[in-house]
Amino acid sequence: PEKKFGVVVVGVGRAGSVRMRDLRSAHASSAFLNLIGFVSRRELKCIDEVQQISLEDALSSQAVDVAYICSENTSHEGYIRQFLNAGKHVLVEYPMALSWTAAKDLWELAEQKGKVLHEEHIELLMEEFAFLKKEVVGKDLLKGSLLFTAGPLEEERFGFPAFSGISRLTWLVSLFGELSLVSATLEERKEDQYLKMTVCLETENKRPLTWIEEKGPGLKRNRHLSFHFKSGSLENVPNVGDNRNIFLKDQTIFVQKLLGQISEVELAAEKKRILHCLWLAEEIQKCCG
What we know:
The chain is an alpha/beta fold. It contains ten helices and 13 strands. The protein has a six-stranded mixed beta sheet, covered by helices on one side. A five-stranded parallel beta sheet has the order 2-1-5-6-7, with helices on both faces. A two-stranded antiparallel sheet has the order 3-4. Helix 3 packs parallel to helix 4, helix 5 packs parallel to helix 8 and helix 8 packs across helix 10.
């Protein structure tokens, strides 16, 4: 490629580290990108010969065209706003913001600045999701449920569970269309680091879907699903292969957006879905009040 986009990675935890590795891989999408440095609150100086740079330098540098936001969820909105205002394209790990209003605002800012704003959704690139998508197509849903269990997660850093767990909601919306909220409850025992959020949703055809997030010490990271159709049931997903290079698949989509290779129709549908999921997450949070 004639032009390479200069990239800075903000936040070098699990996702940020994978992003830095991918940016230096021999992958086709990485040929369009040039990793300039990383931003971290910790004093790290350099990681595998990649230099740490200050946030101020990342924002003002002419060499930086793109920011990958891989920091804690609570900081996403602020970083996106700063980088868009500085005229940079942004890739952000989900959720882009912890409120629907903020997300809508950020999309408007990106459009106003003529910049790409891309919210990562690797869960839609998983083999399991591809399998489910094929399984549910053309079937008439009667009812369904999705339960996700995992270890504790700090709300102060990751936001309310409907936002930190928005990838599960994204699965349901991507499989069954836009949903409406019927009810939501949150059972919490802070001293035990335990929480259980139970959400009752409804499809446009008034079919019930239940989404449960349960987090606490000793709970294994697991997804249990059960969908009942007129023509039979689907209980959990068989082992359908691994999800290697899933962040690279996401990066490929982002590069296609940078190069203007994704149609306006697709971009509009994606934005609509993202905002719908964030709107639902906010309604759930209000409901759990």
